[in-house]
Design a protein that fits this description.
By secondary structure, the chain is α/β, with parallel strands linked by helices. It is built from three helices and ten strands. The strands form two sheets. Strands 2, 3, 4, 5, 6, 7 and 8 form a seven-stranded mixed β-sheet that branches. α1 packs across α2. The chain is globular. The N and C termini lie close together (7 Å).
Amino acid sequence: MTDRPEILFSSEEIAARVSELAREIAGAPQRPDIAMPILVGGFVFAADLVRALSKEGVDLAVEMLWLRSYGDKRVASAISMIAGPSDQIAGRHVLVIDGVLDAGRTIKKAVSLIEAAGAASVRVVALLDKQRADRVAQADHVGFQIGDDFVIGYGMDDAGAHRSLPYIGKV
């Protein structure tokens, strides 16, 4: 990997799109009352999105869901749950927040866990959607559509590296 990956989305482009997503979610008929970011890749996006939602009048409780599918590789493997939903989910309108919708297996697992915990409703927002024809889940709200590139930055990593980049780049 090169030291400086090709930039797909600058920090300014990301900030503008996160604000647009917040307006879109705030204007939806059913507003969420709890955010559930999928760790680890969705944490930067989630932090920015919940603050943008607050500016739109939607103040959310936050509970983390920690699922792992990539580990130290660039190809997703079996999904393992490190931390799942608590009993605080029952009866709530949950907004699942993830960084990348690839094949959709992680989002499908997250929604299944949240529904089993008794959520009243579950909506999904993904910052990036790879638009794969074989995906098993979809997002209700999408920041950017991309190709099948492996992406890093803005919380997403390559075997633990490059999460802290302020932009999204492709490897």
